[in-house]
Amino acid sequence: MKENFDRSLQLVLVHEGGFANHPKDPGGATMKGVTLETFRRNFGSDKTVNDLRNISQEQLAHVYRSGYWDKCKCDQLPSGVDYTVFDLAVNSGPGRAAKFLQSAVGAPQDGAIGPNTLGKVNPQEQPSIINSICDQRLAFLQGLQTFSTFGVGWTKRVASVRQQALDMVSGAPNTGSAAIDTGSAEVVPNQDFDIVRLGSEGAWVAKLQDALKSEADGKFGSKTEATLKAFQETHGLESDGIAGRNTYRALGLID
């Protein structure tokens, strides 16, 4: 629902952390879940790290609406389902969010929400759809090799999303971020990582290749780039062949 965007964004931002600047690459700067690369893509290549640190609420809303909410057609989803899909898209990519929704409503899982998928979303089945998506999300996360590292925070986030979404269905008022139980001690969304691309070498290339189920030789060649671009396109991410925060999160390599 269109009127749920502001409330949903507030809830998402509780999990996204504040400012972090990667020590090895200026492209690693992140503010409230927005990377410098994404910020520049939306607002101009001349934007600086300091501009990102001072990102406005209007700019945040634009990035999250255009990059996730609109891609998942959340304006056209019933209350609670919209937020469930939105938070999943932010955390694991719009493509995965679309597929989990499609699975929940019995639509073909092509990763693109269109008229067929929307037509199968019954507003009377909101709790069932929300629970199905959250169950699928948790099962996916539990199957990742990194669950032992990030599992506590991930589990708390899914539980929080489920409860907040069901509250939206029941018409419960927005309690505000201060009342949201996110397990703040475990929510550490900005881990140290290397941004890698064609020509890169090292441990993070090997981690990327392993997550993509490619030969993990630690050398980012044309085969790795093609595999990465295919993954990014399938999951609704920017298909640029560069592995950074959003790609790593969709792969479950960082929180």
Features:
2% strand, globular, three-stranded antiparallel sheet, 255 residues, 12 helices, 53% helix, mainly alpha
Report on this model:
This protein is an all-alpha fold and 255 residues long. Helix content is 53%, strand content 2%. The protein has a three-stranded antiparallel β-sheet. Strand 2 and strand 3 form a beta hairpin. The radius of gyration is 18 Å and the shape is globular. The relative contact order is 0.13.
Give the low-confidence spans.
177-190
From the alpha carbons, calculate the radius of gyration and give it in angstroms. 18 Å
Percentage beta strand: under 5%
Helix content: 40-55%
Shape: globular
> Which structural class is indicated by helix and strand composition?
mainly alpha
Produce the secondary structure layout:
Elements (H helix, E strand, L loop, with lengths): L4 H10 L4 E2 L9 E2 L2 E2 H8 L5 H5 L3 H13 L11 H12 L1 H12 L9 H6 L5 H17 L4 H24 L32 H9 L10 H13 L10 H7 L4
Antiparallel strand pairs: 1-2, 2-3
